[in-house]
Design a protein that fits this description.
With 325 residues, the protein is α/β, with parallel strands linked by helices. It is built from 13 helices and 10 strands. α2 packs across α11 and α8 packs across α13.
Length: 325
């Protein structure tokens, strides 16, 4: 039994239908643990969500799951740790949006393409970008911010957590959409950026919702707009950015990838397990605490999502004239 291949074992599982929680669906007894490589430090949002999904995989497939943090170099270290590994579904990359779509354009060593070098398992979750302003010095509304962007030479100051991050590019995309610009101010991390806008050193700031919503609720920042396609739970009362800038829907997100050549039945099992996890109340609740909302969908959905996001950010980077470093 132990000598049966992964694919033949999966074929038996698929013939009987989707395996319930607690059964060994992905690998046969004696095989190595499922390894999930995360290009972010322990305790970060990508790490926490990866561990939530990993725990669901452990329960579903009946084998250990190990989360390995490989932060740094724009995600290149993590990508290289997974690329070229044995294509059996037991080594996965849990990558955030910038690693997937931005690093290949902004790092000279980012010589990878996720469609070419990996198999897409699924889109896990997203967090929309939130534009906020200093209470006293910043614009009083998103409409005012857009008008300043269009009329003020150089544009008003807009902070972001790091250069070429999704928040940075969200501001770039907003400016490109209306024929104006922000004066982008990139910081070393989220904490520095938030402190700068709270102090009034920068007029505005853009980032994911999680670190900003508590300050908005506390009256220390003014929420201008959220770049989502609809009103989301926990963000009620915040205007949608697309009301002033049509089509401005910008989110950070997480996706799961497997090694190139991983058999289709294995990818289907991983995708189904991911979707089941995203319907688990404890997973949904914990992700909500982190400002994340489930995505999910089929393998085809994930492929389409990836292609759209790659195209969007490649165009924004090109128009912004951001050169690889």
């Amino acid at each position: 039994m132990q000598k049966r291949t992964l694919l033949s074992g999966l074929a038996c599982v698929l013939a009987l239908g989707l395996a319930p929680l607690g059964t060994t669906a992905l690998a046969q007894p004696g095989r190595q643990p499922i390894r999930i490589v995360v290009p972010a430090p322990a305790g970060s949002a990508p790490d926490v969500v990866a561990r939530l999904i990993g725990e669901q995989f452990r329960a579903r497939f009946g084998q250990p799951v190990v989360v390995e943090n490989r932060a740094g170099a724009g995600g290149i270290l993590a990508v290289n740790a997974v690329r070229g590994t044995e294509p059996n579904g037991t080594t996965l990359l849990f990558a955030q949006a910038a690693v997937v779509t931005v690093t290949p354009h902004t790092y000279k060593e980012g010589k990878y393409d996720m469609e070419r070098d990996f198999e897409t398992v699924g889109a896990v979750a997203y967090t929309p970008m939130l534009f906020v302003a200093n209470i006293d010095k910043g614009p009083k509304s998103w409409a005012e911010a857009v008008q300043l962007m269009k009329s003020q030479p150089g544009g008003p100051s807009m902070g972001n957590p790091t250069r070429t991050s999704i928040p940075h590019l969200a501001a770039e995309r907003a400016g490109q959409a209306v024929g104006g610009s922000f004066q982008n101010v990139s910081f070393s991390n989220t904490g520095q950026g938030i402190q700068a806008v709270v102090n009034g050193d920068t007029l505005m700031y853009v980032d994911g919702t999680a670190p900003l919503v508590p300050l908005v609720k506390a009256g220390r920042l003014r929420a201008l707009a959220v770049a989502s396609d609809k009103v989301l739970p926990g963000l009620e009362g915040i205007p949608l950015a697309q009301e002033q800038v049509p089509g401005l829907e910008v989110s950070g997100w997480f996706m799961i990838f497997a090694s190139k050549g991983t058999p289709r039945p294995v990818l289907e099992q991983l995708n189904q397990a991911m979707n089941a996890a995203l319907k688990t109340p404890e997973v949904v609740d914990k992700m909500r605490e982190l400002g994340n909302y489930p995505l999910g969908g089929s393998l085809a959905d994930a492929g389409d999502f990836l292609r759209r996001e790659k195209q969007q950010w490649a165009e924004v980077i090109r128009k912004s004239n951001l050169q690889p470093e």
